Amino acid sequence: MKKKISFYAMHFCLCFVFLFLPYAFTSTGSVFSLPKLAANPHDRIYFFIYFLLLLFFYFNYYILIPKIYFKEKQISYVITLACFLLFFLWISNVFDTPESNFLDFREHKKNHFNEMFRPHSKDFNHDRGPVSHSLSPSELNDQNHFGGPPTQYSHTILVYLIGVISSLFIAIKNRLQKVEEDKMKSELSFLKAQINPHFLFNTLNSIYSLAIKKDDKTADAVVQLSELMRYIITNANDDVIALEKEINYINNFILLQKTRLGNTAAIDYTLEGNPFGKAITPLILISFIENAFKHGVNPNENSEICIRISIAGDYLTLFVSNNKVQSIQSDSGIGLQNTIERLSLLYPNNHVLSIDDNSKMYLVTLTIKVG
C-alpha cells in the first residue's frame, strides 16, 4: 500500500512540474510566474498543449509500446507516432494562429505581412499621411513576420520527441528488469523444488535408522518430522519468513538429529540474541547445518559438531564446524550448492560467506542481513 501511495505521489509531482515548466522562467525577471489561463491566450496555449503531451506520454507508455512496439510491429508504431505528431502540430497551430492554414506557410506569411503593414484608421493622419507604427521585439516575434511555420511547432516537436524517447527508455528498462526478475524467480523455484525432497529424504533416513534399532524415541522423531514438514509445506515457498520460525525449524532439526545419534556424536548448539522482529529467506541456513551432520558423523569415530547462531542488530551470524570423518553418506548432495546459489541471488550485497575446508575440519561462517 505504501509503495502504491509513493508511486502515485511521485507521478503527481512529476506531472505538476512538467505542466508548469514553461512558466518557471519568465521574461518579467521573476523566477516563477503562475499561468494566467483566464486572461492570457499564450498561457492557455502552452498549458493545453503540455497537458495533451502529458496524456500522450502515458498513452504511449501503457498502450502503444506494450500493444504495438513490444508486439514486433515497429513500422506500425512509427506510423502511429507520426500521426500523433501531425495531430499535435495541428493543435499547436490552431491555438497559436487560428486564422492561418496548417500546411500553407506562404499564406501564413502573407497574412502576417498584411496585418503588420495595413494602415488602420487610428494610424492614418489625413493631413500628414500614414503614421509610423513601430513594433517591439516581442511583438515582432509574436507576429512571426519572417514567415514559415509558427515558433510553437519546433517547441511542440521537441517536447513530443523527448516524451516518446523517455517513455520508450523507461518501458524497455522496466521490461528488461521484469525479465531478469522472472528469470531469478524461476531459478529460485527450481532450487526450492530440489531442496524440499532433499530434506525429506535425509530426515526419513534419520527416522529409518531409529526404527531399525527399535528405539523408543522413534515416535518423538516422527512428531519432530511432522513439524519440519509443516514448515516446509506452509512457509518454504514464501519470499521471506519470520526469523523466529526459521530458528524453530532449525531447533527441531537439531533435536531430531540428537534423537537419532544419541551418544555417538558430541553436538554443541548455542543460540544468542533475539530473533523476534527479524525476517529471512526460508531454508537459507539449514543446508550448512545439515551438511555438518551428513559429513561429520560416524559412530565408529570421534564426531564433533559445533553450531552457533548469533543475532546482533540487523545481522545474523551462523558458525558451523565439524571434524572430518569417514562419512557413511558419501554422496555430495545438492543442498549446500543450491543454498550458495540462492545466497548470491537473494542477498548479493547483504551476506558474507566464508568456508574453510582443511584436512581435519570443515568450517562455515555466514553473516547475513536479517533486519
UniProtKB/TrEMBL annotation:
<dbReference type="InterPro" id="IPR050640">
    <property type="entry name" value="Bact_2-comp_sensor_kinase"/>
</dbReference>
<feature type="transmembrane region" description="Helical">
    <location>
        <begin position="7"/>
        <end position="25"/>
    </location>
</feature>
<keyword id="KW-0808">Transferase</keyword>
<protein>
    <submittedName>
        <fullName>Histidine kinase</fullName>
    </submittedName>
</protein>
<keyword id="KW-0472">Membrane</keyword>
<feature type="domain" description="Signal transduction histidine kinase internal region">
    <location>
        <begin position="187"/>
        <end position="263"/>
    </location>
</feature>
<dbReference type="InterPro" id="IPR010559">
    <property type="entry name" value="Sig_transdc_His_kin_internal"/>
</dbReference>
<dbReference type="GO" id="GO:0000155">
    <property type="term" value="F:phosphorelay sensor kinase activity"/>
</dbReference>
<keyword id="KW-0812">Transmembrane</keyword>
<keyword id="KW-0418">Kinase</keyword>
<dbReference type="Pfam" id="PF06580">
    <property type="entry name" value="His_kinase"/>
</dbReference>
<keyword id="KW-1133">Transmembrane helix</keyword>
<dbReference type="InterPro" id="IPR036890">
    <property type="entry name" value="HATPase_C_sf"/>
</dbReference>
<feature type="transmembrane region" description="Helical">
    <location>
        <begin position="75"/>
        <end position="95"/>
    </location>
</feature>
<feature type="transmembrane region" description="Helical">
    <location>
        <begin position="45"/>
        <end position="63"/>
    </location>
</feature>
<feature type="transmembrane region" description="Helical">
    <location>
        <begin position="157"/>
        <end position="176"/>
    </location>
</feature>
<dbReference type="GO" id="GO:0016020">
    <property type="term" value="C:membrane"/>
</dbReference>
